[in-house]
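Q: DOCKER domain-containing protein, please. Structure only.
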Amino acid sequence: MAAILSQMDKDHYSSYIKTFPSQPELMDFLMETFILFKDLIGKTVYPCDWVVMNMVQNREFLRAINLFAVTLREMFLSNSSFELQLWNNYFHLAVAFLTQDSLQLENFSQAKRSSILAKYGDMRAAIGASIRDMWYNLGQHKIEFIPGMVGPILEMTLVPELELRKSTIPIFFDMMLCEYELTRSFSRFEDEILRRLDSEVEGGRGDEQYKQLFESILLSCCRGHPELAKPGENFVALATGLLERLLDYRAVMNDENKTYSMSCTVNLLNFYKEIDRQAMYIRYLYKLKDLHISYENYTEGAYTLLLHARLLKWSDEANTAPMQGLHSPSLHTQRQLKEFLYNQIIDYFDQGKASVPGAMGRDSQRLVPWAARRRGH
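A: Structure for DOCKER domain-containing protein:
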């Protein structure tokens, strides 16, 4: 395929596009092509050490993606012809292209990096500029990509290339502004970026430079817009505070000093509690519990689980936060999950040689006889 694409120039692409008798047929072709390209990029056809072949293929993919992007702008952007899924497929393909392993030049030796830059340039910068321009071309359709595109754009901005970060981080402000103008808030954007930051940083992405750029660029953008100045500053403080804690947590995740690990975990769960993100708060409660149990601190593990149990009611209401750990899929109600947790808590108190009375507050009157029966068995 790379050989065929390399033989095609701009006129060939233009002529081929004109052969489709109708717009739906052209749309089907572009949809299938974007999916095929994304699949080929994800499967890495050539071994990672075949650098030349990977770069040749990527060069042709980049040219094709950018030429098809022109078709998107010209034929699928007006109100009558706009196709959300087609544009969505384009953005996901472009981000997948940018973030693929074979283009992460910082992972190569200096000599190989210099050779690639001299012959092919940094293709991440080229596709990043295209993604940015395509986003700004969306106009009134931008809101349809919020919050769906927040994660992919975040993944792109986390790539450790300074100029790419500088040119793409402002997209976040545009997302905030777009949602704010429609709803007078940007809560959907905020919720999604906080959630995705957690998973991306834990996965190894992000660094101190990114935190500083994120803060300075977005603060500058927000302060230039009177209505967004204050809420924007609050959001930036929230996001950078989270980034700082996540980077600290990642740095000590595998540290043999359990005090550092527990301290960073507690900092994060307290942060999520303060900003009322219950699902993330519970997620880090379980990380803290696992840390305690790994060091055989069973009593502390029980008290940590108790913090989750106290958030639940003795009712048949459905669980609102995602369940953690090895909970049975049958635990649909808050009552079922609360009972399950208290069984675990009692087990941990037993293993830690601690007494149950008082530890569970008002629920202790209900559960102490239950615990006694369990021990009797």
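A: Brief note, in case it's useful. The mean pLDDT is 90.
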